[in-house]
């Protein structure tokens, strides 16, 4: 691929338009291995002939069929969220434009559903591009490569996300990890099957109302089987996962042992007056992929 | 798996119980947020006479829905040489239609409401009063869902509502789901919800 190596322009080349399009196409149609493996494990652990096991086997059938036919796993291709890690000098404006063009093309070719609706007029923009859509977030680093992670965040699961301001009297949740545990389990109970359980939680403890939600989504970029580098949070994640899976909510909320596939927790400093716990719920169809664009212009999927 | 073929009789509906797995066949439509708001505000509860276009659609929907089904779904569709087909079409969350669904069931004589996540007490009461069931489809399973939606026959309100929100008139063939609210007043969601509450209370006692 002969493209200019200058990082300023790297994402503005036609070849990278192709790369972004391919990232969207594959994210919409081909569920990542870690998620599929977790669903297979869950399937095997549910009782034979149980409703939960039947539903999980239908999930697995859908995953295989979508991959084979190269069509979107779910009709709700959600909100496309791009997380871009880049060296100094990248033009953010040009990059957002490249993302928008790739999203519009993927919509024309039915890899995305037209998913941007004007809340005032009620009009669907028709190409999945609108004010704030797609979401494009940047982080500058020292690596010469540009990496683009894409998450397709379904609306049903987004609707069951919650933000708690602690202390929460009704849940007897104080301003500590035990308080966070109580509100997180409450959020899982309230989500029931409505977010397409079994879900994966992205959680932010601390931050403000805006940064809390964004950081909770960042947590969802982690591999399902990774270990939180903070041993306290690692233990906390394990506990949330274990306890949530005793609630009996199960696949689609119709009962079973598998309520969550993962819980990923991050923390941000807070101001003394505020203590937010923010939970983003991701559905079982945990669609996220990543590409890496090297400084020589070649690119590949890294997830 | 119990086969349900549209038009569905009252006896058939009364034979179903929460927990039954079903496969639905026949002509039905998709309809979600904009469609429900439209049906209630501009057809069912609008002062007559209705504008001619609305009256025509009202009549058409009456024909389709009598003994039939509505599917809470915003599909991905493809147009190839002027013919529409369904690419991916799993269920959307039904509870958003709770405000409208009882009126829709009553006005049209619907037998089946298909969606995901279950619905509330008003819809449950309407299922009992008008002999209907709520069928929970497989959330997220867009491709297997589309496989059972074999022919697009028509589309209504495409320009006004946009592709996901339009009424897509489709021939279904063995579309799979689970009855979670029956016409006897039983809701699996309600029953399971109580069990979830107890378990949560147990965890929070510690």
General description of the model:
The complex is a heterodimer of chains A (303) and B (206). Chain A is built from eight helices and nine strands. Chain A is α+β, with helices and mostly antiparallel strands and 303 residues long. Chain A folds into two domains: 118 residues, Dihydrodipicolinate Reductase, domain 2 (2-Layer Sandwich); 127 residues, no CATH class. In chain A, strand 1, helix 4 and strand 2 form a beta-alpha-beta unit. The relative contact order of chain A is 0.19. With 206 residues, chain B is of the alpha/beta class. Chain B has one domain: fumarase. In chain B, 39% of the residues lie in helices and 29% in strands. Chain B contains eight helices and nine strands. In chain B, helix 2 crosses helix 4 and helix 4 packs parallel to helix 5. Chain B starts with a strand and ends with a helix. The model of chain B has no long low-confidence stretch (mean pLDDT 97). Classes of the chains: A alpha+beta (303), B alpha/beta (206). At the A-B interface, helix 3, helix 5 and helix 6 of A face strand 4, helix 6, strand 9 and helix 8 of B.
Summarize this entry quickly.
Chain A is α+β, with helices and mostly antiparallel strands. Helix content of chain A is 36%, strand content 20%.
Helix/strand structural class of chain A: alpha+beta
Percent of sequence in beta strands of chain A: 15-25%
Mean pLDDT of chain A: 94
| Overall body shape of chain B | globular
Strand elements of chain A, count: 9
Oligomer: heterodimer
């Amino acid at each position: 691929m002969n493209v200019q190596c200058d990082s300023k322009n790297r994402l503005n080349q036609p070849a990278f338009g192709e790369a972004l399009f391919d990232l969207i196409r594959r994210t919409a149609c081909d569920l990542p291995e870690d998620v599929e493996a977790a669903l297979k494990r869950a399937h095997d652990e549910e009782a034979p002939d149980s409703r939960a096991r039947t539903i999980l086997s239908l999930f697995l059938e859908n995953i295989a069929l979508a991959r084979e036919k190269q069509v979107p796993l779910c009709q709700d291709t959600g909100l496309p969220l791009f997380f871009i890690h880049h060296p100094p000098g990248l033009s953010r404006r040009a990059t957002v434009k490249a993302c928008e063009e790739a999203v519009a093309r993927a919509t024309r070719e039915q890899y995305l559903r037209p998913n941007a609706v004007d809340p005032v007029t009620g009009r669907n923009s028709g190409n999945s591009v609108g004010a704030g859509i797609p979401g494009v977030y940047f982080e500058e680093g020292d690596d010469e490569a540009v990496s683009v992670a894409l998450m397709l965040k379904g609306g049903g699961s987004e609707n069951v996300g919650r933000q708690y301001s602690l202390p929460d009297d009704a849940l007897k949740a104080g301003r500590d990890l035990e308080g966070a545990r109580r509100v997180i389990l409450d959020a899982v109970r309230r989500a029931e099957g409505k977010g397409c359980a079994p879900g994966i939680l992205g959680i932010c403890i601390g931050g403000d109302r805006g940064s809390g939600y964004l950081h909770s989504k960042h947590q969802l970029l982690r591999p399902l089987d990774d270990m939180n580098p903070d041993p306290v949070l690692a233990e906390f994640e394990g506990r949330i996962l274990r306890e949530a899976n005793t609630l009996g909510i199960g696949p689609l909320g119709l009962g079973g042992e598998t309520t969550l596939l993962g819980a990923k927790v991050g923390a941000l400093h807070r101001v003394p007056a505020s203590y937010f716990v923010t939970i983003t719920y991701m559905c079982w169809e945990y669609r996220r992929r990543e590409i890496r664009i090297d400084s020589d212009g070649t690119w590949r999927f890294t997830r | 798996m119990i086969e349900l073929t549209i038009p569905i009789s009252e006896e058939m509906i009364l034979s179903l119980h929460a927990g039954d797995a079903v496969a639905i066949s026949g002509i039905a439509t998709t309809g979600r947020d904009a469609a429900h708001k439209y049906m209630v505000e501009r057809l069912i509860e609008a002062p007559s006479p209705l504008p001619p276009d609305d009256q025509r659609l009202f009549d058409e929907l009456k024909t389709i829905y009598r003994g039939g089904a509505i599917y809470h779904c915003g599909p991905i569709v493809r147009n190839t040489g002027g013919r529409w087909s369904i690419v991916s079409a799993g269920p959307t969350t039904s509870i958003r239609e709770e405000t409208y669904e009882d009126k829709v069931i009553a006005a049209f004589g619907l037998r089946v409401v298909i969606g995901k996540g279950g619905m509330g007490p008003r819809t449950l009461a309407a299922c009992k009063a008008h002999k209907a069931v709520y069928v929970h489809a497989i959330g997220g399973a867009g491709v297997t869902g589309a496989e059972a939606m074999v022919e697009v026959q028509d589309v209504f309100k495409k320009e006004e509502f946009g592709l996901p929100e339009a009424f897509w008139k489709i021939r279904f063939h063995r579309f799979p789901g689970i009855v979670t609210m029956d016409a006897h007043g039983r809701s699996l969601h309600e029953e399971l919800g109580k069990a979830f509450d107890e378990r949560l209370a147990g965890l929070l006692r510690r």
